[in-house]
């Protein structure tokens, strides 16, 4: 199953990847450097939730 990776700043789709341990990718649109670390499915879900919480907090402050 491929996982989608979107820019944490502008949400542009950056990649779809199946297996990885670390991923660093720069968004061509906004130049944000995005870094992802994966060690288990549970940690992936927790990281995704933390990212959503962080993004929501940023949008409320703007």
From TrEMBL:
Keyword field contains DNA-binding: yes
Keywords, A to Z, come to: DNA-binding
List GO molecular-function terms, semicolon-separated. Answer: DNA binding
Q: What is this protein called?
A: Com family DNA-binding transcriptional regulator
